[in-house]
Design a protein that fits this description.
alpha+beta; globular; Aminopeptidase_N-like_N_sf; Neutral Protease, domain 2; protease; Peptidase; Immunoglobulin-like
Length: 1157
């Protein structure tokens, strides 16, 4: 026993004929293995010996053993030879420590490129750690063209993904989540733990007494609980009162992370105590929930663990102690820890007492926790120092750091108590613990973990950066970094109520934790950071639309049966953003007042419990407030929780009869990529259009034809007034149905409209009935009219629950544009018919303030989605050109991203110069925005929400030849000083543009001489890729890049082209040629040709191709492309379409007399 338990009753083993733990006079149990346990609890047989039978049995066993050894030897030789051959190929792809890595060109904390000290195989990603396979592999499905999606650089702020508990280094745990019996559950854990050996041996020893409650007479004769492979149980005893319960056998099911105790008698309705003694390995196990920080020892050749923190979410508590590791199972924890006196040990609750034992070690006893889930149990140990603050109720809120980091915790220490008081006041539910600790840990696996009473952060997410903190003035960088820290702290504090006090019952309801915590970040910070919170919400909504329109579009609530699925569920966009969006939607549907009252009721009614969404809806208003019809809130939101993806709504108007048809369906990006739909592909071209035109068949057929017939003459009527044929209804007829007086903006309900519902699934009985999984209950609204007119603006509201609805609105003039979803109020895309898109685009140019600025942001986002790769790309380009008049920085920044993606997509096209020239006024307006925002620190911080946004703007600014690019000045400074100013990305972009325009000359000679050195400056290597008409320099740079033998490096180089205007085919030809010099095995490995699921980096590398000429170079690298070949087909169609529109419709658009009106 541990020294702290010297006087506790010993755990004992049993008589051979009575396999259970027996009274104290028997010898103590000293079992240390599963085999020993099995042998000790086996009963003695009384059967007479039969030597002949035993001899025959032994002979057969020897024969089988001999055969097995022979087979193993033959297979072993074969596998060894194969591994030697394969290992030689893979070893060539390991990163060479002397080879320079190429930095990312964006100011991002992360990079695509590997560390120069890594020894992992960089391509494809390292094979995940697996136990023996219990789960059959899914059938492999061939990817079709319609399932290929272009990799999207979302621009998500890396710190948010980290703070949201996600991690790129997650282990994929291919283990079933086996639900435990509900007939018996723990009530209390009494844990006595010795961590004195964790530093040297990376082990802990512990005794745990689990108080169990059996809720009824059961037929089960076993107890099953969770225990990971890191745990080795050495002693075990089960008691009910003073009575020892006989144990027949025990089984450790490592593959399922379960431990089974088979009893001699069924459990009764009673209380039990399960005593266990065990050893747990920590720090170096792939599935462990303990994160250790290692420091080198004196000789420098090895290291030792000097501190550790725990992180048990989602299912890692079982790696630290035997337990019922399910979120629905709540119990109280009483923890006592024996540790070195130089360590500060922290847990969920405050310290109750400490003392020294006879061995000079400290024993710390913590107060009992409230009932909580096992994943919230926490322990931290290290040489921490504290910075203590107090909340309004005098609750100590303490920041714990390493001594050298304490000064950088000042902002967190000042902000956290204020935010704590704000949340406690807003929720009107008192925080139940007596203290709250925040630990700035090193080597923490994720950004933060909300353990109740002991929140653990990675030090980079909680502490200020030293270079920012040293500044005497409040800079933009400092303001932005403080905003990041404030978001993380707010998120984790929200979890103290949403997740800790009230916990989701099952991991499938994870949105109840993370959705509310993410929502509260924007709500609680809106007063302090109004512009940042508003813009970040809508920029993340745009990212959500894009990602949920691609190949992965998981539902918010879905079945999660394996640990790997739960790990993957912690996704920044698919969980945190989508959950936040749904919670905000609930708030808007019931009003802020009723939402606030309902949430307070939800927390009070379910405190210390485990809930489902049913409990949430029971606390909220029954009906949603939208339109004239009463709809149940739970039924409305259920579609948004269970459906995969996000919806899109198509509005089609019939202008001669005042008819409107509104249709919904699942949003899919490839539906609007015209190059995927043609006669050669077996798809009827007239069935493709960017709207559902079946309502207006004549107009729909015309648009569909124009979408496919790319060589058709440019439509000069695109920017002309609408045809008179659309005004067949006389004004007298219209006036009979209008109100005589309308002023201001009024909201009209669906009862104000003449509606004729035509439900597609009932109107056409031959059509298959659609599954509810692709239909949403959408709070639809639309607006028309002008705020300057005497009639004002009119807003209609109604529910769109069916596939489509048709109605007549005689008050809507055929010459007036219809704007759906005003103020981007709800999360769905909106597409329009061709004429309405024209009118909205013209209104943006004539008077964009007639459209709310949030709706302008949605028009930019939806315009890119529906128009940019349709048959009308010039309409999208014209829409973007309105940005030269945009005053809203938020709309302008979303426009900047869209402009950059557009220019990048045509980077190798002959039309790119005309495109940049046409959009130069927009880029100039963005340049003025950048200058103007410097006077407002928060507005300037908007540029930094996406860490790549400034780099994109620098590229566009130089491509447009704006004077602010300062090319010549940077070249002179580079030659004189030999280094760059503080903003490296701005300066290198200017240098690259200069080199591309001027051909290099003496600058190129200097770069070439520097590349010949043993150590190469990565920035110079990047600049080398900018020089044109220098084959020797291009070949040298390509050889250096390819020598790194890493797909992520190649992809980064090709995508980090600093000059958007000047596509360098010469360097790309040299790079692909250098890759072609690799062995065929290396090339197949590089492109994941033989993989069942190709590496994302391999796919991203292929999609960095920009022209059909370059595509032909790549195609010739391999004789066959396997599953990756479909991506080459996709690229061929895309690039061929770009060639056609560049010489066709876009060329005619740019050469027309007045393309910009």
């Amino acid at each position: 026993d541990l020294s702290m338990h010297r006087h506790s009753p010993p755990l004992t083993r049993v008589d051979e004929g009575h396999p259970c733990l027996t009274p104290d006079e028997k010898p103590p149990c000293t079992l240390h293995s599963e085999q020993a346990l099995s042998e000790a609890f086996s009963s003695i047989s009384t059967r007479r010996k039969d030597h002949c039978r035993r001899f025959i049995l032994l002979f057969l066993c020897l024969c089988i053993l001999t055969l097995a050894i022979t087979i193993a030897f033959v297979l072993g030789r074969y596998v060894t030879e194969w591994q030697k051959t394969k290992g030689k190929e893979e070893e060539q792809w390991r990163v060479n420590q002397t080879t320079p890595s190429l930095p990312s060109l964006s100011p991002s904390p992360s990079t695509l490129l590997p560390s120069t000290t890594s020894t992992r195989r960089p391509l494809p990603p390292t094979t995940p750690y697996h136990y023996a396979r219990l789960i059959p592999l899914a059938a492999v499905k061939n990817t079709t063209l319609d399932e290929v999606f272009v990799p999207f650089a979302s621009g998500e702020d890396e710190d948010w993904a980290v703070a949201s508990h996600s991690s790129d280094m997650r282990m994929q745990r291919d283990t079933f989540l086996v639900p435990l019996s509900t007939s018996i559950s723990p009530v209390q854990y009494d844990i006595h733990m010795d961590i004195t050996r964790f530093s040297d041996e990376r082990q802990i020893t512990a005794n745990v007494s689990i108080h169990l409650m059996s809720y009824g007479n059961s037929t089960d004769e076993e107890i099953v609980f969770h225990a990971g492979p890191e745990i080795r149980i050495s002693r075990i005893r089960l008691k009910s009162g003073d009575h020892n319960i006989s144990i027949l056998s025990m089984k450790n099911e490592t593959n399922k992370k379960l431990y089974r105790i088979l009893l001699k008698e069924p459990l009764k309705r009673a209380e039990y105590v399960l005593d266990l003694e065990y050893i747990a390995s920590i720090c170096d196990t792939p599935d462990g929930g303990v994160n250790c920080y290692f420091e080198p020892i004196a000789n420098g050749t090895s290291s030792k663990a000097t501190s550790f923190t725990t992180k048990f979410e989602p299912a890692l508590a079982r790696s630290f102690l035997p337990c019922w590791d399910e979120p629905a199972v709540k119990a109280v924890f009483q923890l006592t820890v024996r540790h070195s006196p130089i360590l500060k040990v922290l847990s969920n609750t405050a310290v109750q007492w400490t003392k020294m034992d006879e061995g000079g070690m400290t024993i710390t006893h913590f107060k009992q926790t409230p009932p909580m889930s096992s994943y919230l149990l926490a322990l931290a140990a290290g040489e921490f120092v504290r910075l203590e603050m107090f909340t309004r109720r005098k609750i100590p809120l303490t920041i714990w750091t390493f001594p050298e980091d304490l000064a950088r915790a000042s902002f967190a220490a000042q902000f956290a108590p204020k935010m704590f008081d704000q949340q406690e006041e807003e929720l009107e539910v008192l925080y139940p613990l007596s203290k709250l600790d925040m630990v700035a840990a090193r080597s923490f696996s994720v950004g933060a973990m909300e353990n109740w009473g002991l929140v653990v952060f990675d030090s980079h997410t909680l502490l200020q950066q030293s270079e920012i903190d040293d500044s005497m003035s409040m800079t933009v960088d400092r303001h932005h970094h403080e905003y990041r820290i404030a978001k993380i702290i707010t998120h984790e504090l929200a979890h103290q109520w949403f997740g800790n006090l009230v916990t989701m019952r099952d991991w499938s309801e994870l949105w109840l934790n993370e959705g509310f915590a993410s929502f509260l970040v924007y709500e609680m910070l809106s007063a302090r950071y109004p512009h940042l919170t508003e813009f970040e919400y809508f920029s993340r909504l745009a990212i959500l639309f894009h990602k949920q329109s691609g190949v992965e579009r998981p539902a918010l609530v879905r079945s999660l049966s394996r640990e790997s699925q739960v790990e993957a569920a912690f996704h920044t966009t698919h969980l945190y953003t989508k959950g936040c969006v749904v919670v905000r939607m609930i708030r808007d549907l019931v009003s802020s007042f009723d939402f606030s009252a309902g949430i307070k009721r939800y927390i009070r009614n379910n405190a210390y419990g485990a809930v489902t969404r049913v409990d949430l809806f029971a606390s909220l208003p029954v009906y949603a407030d939208h339109g004239a019809e009463n709809e149940r809130l739970d039924e409305i939101i259920e579609t948004w929780l269970l459906n995969e993806g996000m919806p899109e709504v198509t509005v089609s108007r019939k202008y001669d009869t005042d008819g409107i048809r509104v249709t919904q369906r699942l949003s899919r990006a490839n539906r609007y990529r015209i190059f995927l739909y043609d006669e050669k592909n077996g798809v009827d071209p007239t069935s493709f259009s960017y709207t559902d035109n079946s309502y207006n068949s004549e107009e729909g057929s015309r648009v569909a034809r124009s979408a496919v017939e790319q060589e058709k003459e440019f439509d000069d009527t695109l920017f002309e007034d609408l045809p008179d044929g659309w005004r067949r209804t006389t004004e007298k007829k219209r006036q009979r149905h209008r109100k005589k007086i309308r002023s201001g903006s009024k909201t009209r309900q669906s009862s104000d409209i003449l509606i004729e519902k035509r439900h597609e699934d009932t109107r056409n009985k031959k059509r298959a009935r659609h599954s509810p999984s692709d239909r949403w209950s959408i709070p639809f609204s639309y607006m028309f009219g002008s705020i300057k007119s005497t009639e004002g603006q009119v807003i209609r509201q109604f529910w769109l629950k069916n596939r489509s609805i048709s109605f007549t609105d005689v008050e809507l003039s055929p010459t007036a544009p219809l704007l759906a979803n005003p103020d981007w109020a709800y999360p769905y895309r909106v597409n329009y018919d061709y004429a309405n898109w024209k009118m909205l685009t013209k209104l943006l140019h004539d008077n964009h303030n007639e459209i709310p600025f949030k709706s302008r942001m949605q028009l930019i986002v939806d315009g890119e989605f529906f128009l940019s790769q349709s048959g009308l790309p010039h309409l999208y380009i014209y829409l973007l050109s309105y940005l030269q008049s945009e005053e809203s920085l938020g709309a302008s920044l979303l426009g900047l991203d869209a402009v950059h993606r557009l220019v990048e997509s045509f980077q190798g096209s002959p039309i790119v110069n005309q495109l940049i020239r046409y959009l130069s006024p927009v880029i100039s307006r963005l340049d003025r925005h950048l200058v103007d925002s410097q006077s407002d620190v928060e507005m300037a911080s908007l540029w930094l929400l996406d860490p790549h946004r400034l780099t994109r703007f620098y590229q566009l600014r130089c491509a447009a030849n704006l004077s602010s690019c300062e090319k010549e000045e940077e070249v002179r400074a580079w030659f004189l000083r030999g280094h760059y100013s503080s903003d490296m990305h701005q300066r290198t972009t200017a240098l690259c543009h200069y080199l591309a325009v001027n051909g290099g000359g003496k600058e190129a000679q200097r770069i070439e001489s520097e590349l010949a050195k043993a150590t190469v400056d990565p920035t110079l290597l990047q600049l080398a890729t900018c020089v044109h008409d220098n084959p020797q320099l291009a070949a040298r740079a390509a050889r250096i890049v390819v020598a790194q033998r890493n797909a992520a490096v190649y992809d980064s180089v090709l995508r980090s082209d600093l000059s958007q205007q000047h596509y360098n085919l010469e360097f790309r030809r040299a790079l692909w040629g250098a890759i072609g010099s690799l062995s065929e095995g290396d090339r197949r490995f590089l492109f994941s040709v033989d993989e069942i699921v190709p590496s994302p980096k391999s796919i991203s590398l292929l999609h960095s191709i920009r022209t059909t000429k370059e595509l032909e170079l790549v195609k010739n690298l391999l004789p066959s492309w396997g599953r990756v070949g479909v991506h080459l087909q996709f690229l061929h169609r895309l690039l061929s379409w770009q060639d056609r529109v560049s010489t066709g419709v876009l060329s005619k658009f740019f050469s027309s007399d007045s393309p910009s009106l």
